[in-house]
């Protein structure tokens, strides 16, 4: 294999244990697996690659990057010093340093971490979202009835979402809002709980613009009837957990062409609405009446080989290596255009 000239730096947040930090850590450590998978794919594409784990302060990381003289960075950083809310600060620092990097811009990362703000923007673009409000502080929209789902407003990776997050009366709602405030130190996003099916659509910037990959469905058919049909934290991350094994994804989803086209079209529209770049994942619920609701846009999804994005690439018969070749070309083209 001929080695290509640009040196690619794979930047990721190395996990750092924090005293007193909550126990939801597996979603933070998974980024290291993604960094290994991505580095291997870039090497297979013929590029020299260097691993750039972010440890300690930003000054130390900057010196590390300068010493490598990398042509561009693959940005896999999902937090800074263990704080997910500072994910966008890392990308903003790259921009201030004029370092070309793959993935979404700081603006998009910051926007999409604020779930209610993203919902408001999507609705302003005429895209369908479930009714919701922030608690405490905002009034419940007229006509919004139980059941509802309560989640932290500024977390990702299903942090803070469990079976008891779905509430059926005012007392349970107030209790769950209080738990989010106490545990995550941020407002709670309260949304109407959409009973039905859950889908997600991966989107990436292909040669001719944003491309929606095959639709994936979270199969809830094996869940007990008395368990809320949601993809909570245990179901998403703990492979030995009964909820994980009962919520396996199906990609491509067994749906009609009409629904597939609608979901893919809405995913691309949402990607454009948040000024998406390179890749993202859009999550949906479809009600029992067939109504589609966008749950959120994830601008920095798990990109490892065993995650949903890679599964969607495979369903589209797009090689993982070819995807990263495209991301490198996108980034270097942006660098050249400057």
Q: Concise description?
A:
The chain is of the alpha+beta class. The protein has eleven helices and 14 strands.
Characterise the protein shown here.
By secondary structure, this protein is an alpha+beta fold. The chain folds into three domains: 8-102 and 319-337, Rossmann fold (3-Layer(aba) Sandwich); 112-129 and 196-315, ATP-grasp fold, B domain (D-amino Acid Aminotransferase, Chain A, domain 1); 132-192, 2-Layer Sandwich (Dna Ligase, domain 1). Helices cover 37% and strands 21% of the residues. Helix 1 (26-44) packs across helix 11 and helix 3 (87-96) runs antiparallel to helix 4. The longest helix has 19 residues, at 26-44. The protein is globular and about 60 Å long. The two termini are 30 Å apart. The mean pLDDT is 93.
List the helices and strands and how they pair.
Blueprint: E1 8-13, H1 26-44, E2 49-54, H2 58-68, E3 72-75, H3 87-96, E4 101-102, H4 106-113, H5 115-124, E5 132-135, E6 148-152, E7 166-167, H6 170-184, E8 188-192, E9 196-206, E10 209-212, E11 216-218, H7 233-237, H8 242-245, E12 249-250, H9 257-273, E13 279-287, E14 292-298, H10 308-315, H11 320-337
Parallel strand pairs: 1-2, 1-3, 3-4
Antiparallel strand pairs: 5-8, 6-7, 6-8, 9-10, 9-11, 9-13, 11-12, 13-14
Shape: globular
Mean pLDDT: 93
CATH class of the largest domain: Alpha Beta
Supply the CATH architecture of the largest domain: 2-Layer Sandwich
Give the full name of the CATH homologous superfamily of the largest domain. Answer: ATP-grasp fold, B domain
DSSP helical segment count:
11
Helix content: 25-40%
The computed structural class is alpha+beta
Number of domains: 3
Per DSSP E runs of 2 or more residues, the count of β-strands stands at 14
Strand content: 15-25%
Radius of gyration: 20 Å
C-alpha termini separation: 30 Å
CATH topology label of the largest domain: D-amino Acid Aminotransferase, Chain A, domain 1
N-to-C SSE string, H for helix and E for strand: EHEHEHEHHEEEHEEEEHHEHEEHH
The stretches of 5 or more residues where confidence is low (pLDDT under 50) are none
Sheet of most strands: 6 strands, antiparallel
């Amino acid at each position: 294999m001929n080695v290509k000239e640009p040196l690619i730096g794979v930047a990721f947040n190395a996990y750092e244990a924090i005293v007193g930090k909550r126990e939801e850590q597996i979603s933070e450590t998974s980024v290291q697996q993604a960094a290994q998978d991505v580095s291997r794919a870039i090497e297979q594409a013929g590029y020299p690659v260097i691993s750039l784990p972010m440890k300690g302060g930003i000054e130390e990381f900057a010196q590390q990057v300068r010493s490598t003289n990398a042509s561009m960075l693959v940005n896999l950083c999902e937090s800074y010093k263990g704080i997910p809310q500072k994910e966008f600060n890392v990308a903003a620092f790259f921009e201030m340093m004029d370092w070309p990097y793959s993935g979404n811009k700081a603006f998009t990362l910051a926007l999409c971490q604020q779930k209610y703000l993203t919902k408001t923007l999507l609705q302003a673009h005429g895209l369908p979202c479930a009714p919701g409000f922030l608690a405490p502080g905002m009034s419940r929209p007229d006509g919004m009835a139980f059941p509802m789902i309560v989640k932290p407003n500024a977390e990702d990776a299903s942090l803070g979402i469990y079976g008891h997050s779905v509430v059926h009366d005012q007392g349970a709602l107030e209790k769950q809002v209080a738990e989010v405030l106490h545990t995550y130190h941020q407002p709670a996003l309260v949304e109407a709980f959409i009973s039905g099916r859950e889908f997600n659509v991966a989107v990436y910037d292909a040669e001719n613009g944003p491309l929606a990959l095959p639709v994936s469905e979270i199969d809830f058919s094996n869940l007990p009837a008395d368990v809320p049909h949601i993809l909570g934290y245990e179901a998403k991350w703990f492979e030995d957990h009964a909820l994980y094994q009962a919520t396996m994804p199906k990609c491509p989803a067994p749906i009609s062409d009409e629904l597939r086209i609608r979901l893919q079209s809405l995913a691309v529209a949402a990607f454009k609405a948040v000024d998406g770049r390179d890749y993202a994942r859009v999550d949906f619920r479809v009600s029992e009446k067939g109504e589609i609701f966008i749950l959120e846009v994830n601008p920095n999804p798990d990109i490892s080989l065993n995650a949903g994005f890679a599964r969607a690439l495979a369903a589209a018969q797009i090689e993982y290596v070819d995807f990263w070749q495209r991301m490198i070309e996108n980034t270097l083209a942006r660098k050249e255009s400057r």
